[in-house]
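testing teh design pipeline on a random one, pls ignore if ur not involved
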């Protein structure tokens, strides 16, 4: 299920969790890789990052590069 335009990082994390279907280890690994590429911890983003469109775009691009397009 694609993430809607205007989404924030909470929506991105929810979409990723849905896509992985409860595979917690996979989620942890992917979140770590996203953090290393973008500086964003999806599970605990800084308040100024949550709704920043540029940050969301960079996270979505990183997820896509990792093979998990939302």
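output:
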């Amino acid at each position: 299920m694609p993430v809607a335009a205007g989404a924030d990082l909470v929506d991105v994390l929810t979409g990723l969790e849905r896509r992985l279907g409860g595979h917690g280890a996979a989620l942890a690994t992917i979140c770590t890789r996203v953090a290393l590429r973008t500086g964003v911890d999806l599970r605990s983003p800084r308040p100024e990052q949550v709704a920043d469109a540029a940050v969301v775009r960079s996270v979505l691009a990183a997820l896509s590069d990792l093979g998990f397009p939302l």
